[in-house]
């Protein structure tokens, strides 16, 4: 009888030990799931914090800038803006620098591309390439031009903010680098358009 009791005691102890090990293993899995859940919620919490920062910071700034620049356009007059655009479309130096700058500054993205109406058909692809490439570089100085994609500038500026460096010099250099890039892109696209048109026998 004592042998049977000893075996039962041993069996119960074995079951208890295996149960504790199983609980420990389960705790490890549950712990990993809890960590994953915490990270997942934390990701959305970080997004919510950024959104709150936008609502209290950049969004009012963009609204005020949009209001100010639409007021400027109305005061200057749409006809004067159009005349300036026609002047800028007149030669290759201003066609892929000043014209995209005026278009993006006054009309913002995506209305900026409508300034292509002042150009001959053969120049429109190159103008579009210049204008679409210029909707990011001015964001440091003029966030109203493309508020939907402010994250591009904010991502660039974040590193400087963490180092407590001023953003003004970077914003100016970003804008100037953008002007150089869009001018080069405009020239290259104009050449490519003419080359492909000749190759395919298209009259421009």
Topology:
Elements: H1 2-76, H2 78-88, H3 92-95, H4 98-107, H5 124-132, H6 150-162, H7 168-200
Keywords: Membrane, Transmembrane, Transmembrane helix
InterPro entries: PTS_IID_sorb
Transmembrane segments: 50-76, 96-115, 174-197
What do you see in this structure?
With about 200 residues, this protein is an all-alpha fold. It is built from 7 helices and no strands. The chain has a domain at about 75-200. The chain has helices at about 1-75, 80-90, 90-95, 100-105, 125-130, 150-160, 170-200. α2 runs antiparallel to α4 and α4 packs across α5. The model has no long low-confidence stretch (mean pLDDT about 75).
| Rg estimate, integer Å | 31 Å
Work out the helix count. 7
Q: What is the arithmetic mean of pLDDT? A: 77
Succession of helices and strands: HHHHHHH
Residue share in helix: over 70%
Which structural class best describes the helix and strand composition? Answer: mainly alpha
Q: What is the terminal-to-terminal distance?
A: 108 Å
The strand count comes to 0
Runs with pLDDT <50, length 5+?
A: none
GO cellular component, one term: membrane
Organism: Rubrobacter taiwanensis
Pfam families: EII-GUT
Transmembrane segments: 50-76, 96-115, 174-197
């Amino acid at each position: 009888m004592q042998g049977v009791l000893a075996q039962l005691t041993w069996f119960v102890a074995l079951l208890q030990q295996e149960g504790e090990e199983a609980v420990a293993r389960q705790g490890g899995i549950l712990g990993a799931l809890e960590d994953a859940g915490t990270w997942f919620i934390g990701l959305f919490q970080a997004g919510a914090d950024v959104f709150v920062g936008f609502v209290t910071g950049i969004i009012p700034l963009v609204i005020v800038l949009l209001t100010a620049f639409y007021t400027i356009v109305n005061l200057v007059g749409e006809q004067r803006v159009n005349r300036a655009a026609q002047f800028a479309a007149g030669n290759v130096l201003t066609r892929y620098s000043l014209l995209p700058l005026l278009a993006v500054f006054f009309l913002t993205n995506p209305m900026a591309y409508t300034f292509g109406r002042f150009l001959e058909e053969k120049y429109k692809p190159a103008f579009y390439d210049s204008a679409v490439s210029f909707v990011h570089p001015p964001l440091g100085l003029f966030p109203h031009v493309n508020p939907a994609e402010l994250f591009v500038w904010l991502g660039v500026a974040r590193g400087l903010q963490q180092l407590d460096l001023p953003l003004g010099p970077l914003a100016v250099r970003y804008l100037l680098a953008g002007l150089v890039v869009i001018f080069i892109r405009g020239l290259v696209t104009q050449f490519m358009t003419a080359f492909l048109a000749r190759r395919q026998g298209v009259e421009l």
